[in-house]
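Please go through the protein record below and explain what the tokens say about the fold. Record follows.
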Amino acid sequence: MAVNKEIPLTSKSLKEPLPADSGFIILYGTEELLIENFLSKLKQQFGSYNLYHGEELDLENFITLLGEKSLFSPKGKTVNVVKHAERFFSKFRTKRQRERLLRLLERPISNLVVFIIPTDLKRSDWNKEPYRTLAKVAAAVYAAKKLTRPQIEQLVKKKFQKAGIKVPQEVINYLLESFSDLMQLRTEVEKLITYAAGKGELTLQEVKQLVEGHPEYTVFDLQREFFNRNLQGALKIFRRLSAGLNPYEQTPLVLQIQGLLLSTANRMLIALERTRKGEDLKSFAREIGLYYPFQVAQFKNWLHLWGEKELVNLIRKLYQLDTDIKLRFVPAGNAFESFLVETLG
């Protein structure tokens, strides 16, 4: 059976409004990143949704989340998402149970119900119930199919371009070869964009140092602990990152961390000044290199922990640390640990 209403889930199709505010929408496929992007689109269009899991859902709950279209139906509609809907459907084992499910699916409903099925459904699957009926009654069927390498490459390039960061092709190739999982790739790209805010470009050497790191920690973990004012956490991570490195090898690591902390402190100072004038951080977040909600939330927390004088003093200390290492040849590892104790202790 062909699914006539199937729409490939792409960045282009995600820009279009979802085709219904009541009824059924089906989303199937194994590309987790596309599924997450779809849920973001759902929230953007409808404001919020209720999330259910197929293995936890029973028939009575299911009937409730459908709503019922009638003259006496309430005007307010809800959006309900059922993740792993196939696990819910598998509970209908007898013929009588399956027939009851199909009657429910064919009945007009007042809510919008999105079934997420994280598997690649084949034509033989669509020929079976309840998928046959779902394909007939659904307002749309979205397919989150695995992206090809050229498609992923374009997504990564657009992310950097949108952030105003230049990266050579060798960086793109390295990231695609290092991270086969799209969710992990997205996370690493977002971290790199945060690091490069204000720099405008990234080299392959920088990227390798940033994404390889220690199996347990990266410089971004140290950044988080530092601005959370957690001395012990920052010291622990730095010692893990520098373990096994000789004094000469510690120098580029420390300078990399110093640059990240300096960039972050400068952006925090700008954000602090503008929020004190009454601006909402979200309104100018992109101007200071914050492209994702988790970054904005993290910055808000940090702004509560650092005052203006402290940030100005921190920036002075970071420039001094740079001078001590580059011009006075102070051992980088020792200098950085002293800096942490003096600043956070």
